[in-house]
Design brief:
Blueprint: H1 3-6, H2 31-55, E1 59-66, H3 72-80, E2 88-92, H4 98-101, H5 107-110, E3 119-123, H6 132-135, H7 141-144, H8 147-160, E4 163-171, H9 174-186, H10 196-202, H11 205-218, E5 226-230, H12 234-250, H13 263-278
Parallel strand pairs: 1-3, 1-4, 2-3, 4-5
The structure holds adenosine monophosphate and magnesium ion (MG).
Length: 308
């Protein structure tokens, strides 16, 4: 099953979150049932990120949005665990500072987008400027309603410059949110996460859902698709997100760059060094023997004559 197709919001379609089952878990019954597949995707993510870093041509921006308790932190933990910290980063966007508020709302966002070869995860994003900002009327409707187009243009510009964008909305239902707040209350290692706003914001659940439905409906394009991930089950959420990331990265058809040096020459230098170290004549070492697979005998400009 390709969740890339199943959970992707088609451009122009009208999202109704009330009709999307947050408890969906495909054909899998439980965490054990996904563990082998999840492991494969994690390994593949490790390889693909190394490739992206080496190729230094593409970048990947992962946008994560969810209601409070939706599992952004857990998803980041899981996905990032597969990646080499050199080449990826996570940026959290909180209530804007005075300096950030003195600029346009995309100012703080744009400067954190990934450079070539890098992966960046946004834990919340510019979408807060059409979510919390809209729900709490932090700016007028006239202002926030123009932002969908502005965001689309901004993301298009990023995409045109070589940034692949994937956006995940981790969809939980209201009961699951309360269950997670209960866990926060009862598990000492989660209590630090509790805020007063967990409960005050819950009163705005319906307004948030409406704001999300608008953002998801108006801002999903091929160059920057939204995916709605059923996220009541954390193990299914991690599986779907990992699979979509793997398929997205594989779609880039990345390749390791050719070495910038002549390997035959470098190999000769290496063998000379080894010979020096061991005090044996250079000729006694067989340079050809250590050629990597598929490269044996390939020497620039020097064709070996066939033995007759
Ligand atoms: P957390 O991600 O749980 O640490 O919380 C960050 C808080 O910052 C959330 O309550 C967000 O709603 C809030 N926040 C993020 N971006 C904005 C924004 N542009 N304007 C107002 N509040 C924001
Ligand atoms: Mg929070």
């Amino acid at each position: 099953m390709s969740y890339t197709n199943e959970f992707r919001i088609k451009t122009g379609s009208k999202v109704n979150l009330g009709k999307i089952d947050a408890g969906y878990h495909g054909a899998f019954e439980n965490e054990e049932a996904v563990s082998a597949e999840l492991n494969n995707y994690s390994q593949r993510l490790t390889e693909l990120q190394a490739l992206m870093y080496a190729e230094n041509k593409h970048s990947l921006l992962i946008v994560l949005q969810a209601m409070d308790g939706g599992g952004k932190d857990g998803t980041i933990h899981h996905v990032m665990a597969a990646m080499n910290p050199q080449g990826c980063s996570v940026v959290g966007f909180k209530v804007p500072t005075a300096e950030e508020l003195a600029h346009d709302y995309l100012w703080r966002i744009h400067k954190m987008t990934p450079a070539k070869g890098h992966i960046t995860v946004f834990n919340r994003s510019h979408y807060e400027d059409v979510l919390v900002v809209r729900v709490h009327s932090l700016v007028s409707k006239e202002i926030w309603s123009k932002r969908y187009n502005e965001i689309n243009e901004f993301e298009r510009e990023l995409a045109n410059s070589g940034t692949t964008i994937v956006k995940f909305f981790l969809h939980i239902d209201k009961e699951e949110q309360l269950k997670r707040f209960h866990d926060r209350l009862n598990e000492p290692d989660k209590q630090w996460k509790i805020t007063d706003s967990d409960y005050t914001e819950r009163e705005y659940w319906d307004e948030y859902q409406r704001a999300y439905m608008d953002a998801l409906s108006k801002c999903s394009f091929n160059y920057a698709p939204w995916y709605i991930i059923p996220a009541n089950h954390k193990w299914f959420r991690d599986l779907a997100v990992s699979q979509i990331l793997v398929e997205t990265l594989e779609g880039l058809k990345m390749k390791y760059p050719e070495p910038s040096v002549d390997l035959v020459t470098i190999r000769q230098l290496y063998h000379n060094e080894v010979a020096e170290e061991q005090g044996i004549p250079h000729a006694a070492l067989n340079v050809e023997e250590e050629q990597p697979k598929g490269k044996k005998g390939k020497r620039k400009g020097k064709k070996k004559k066939k033995k007759k």
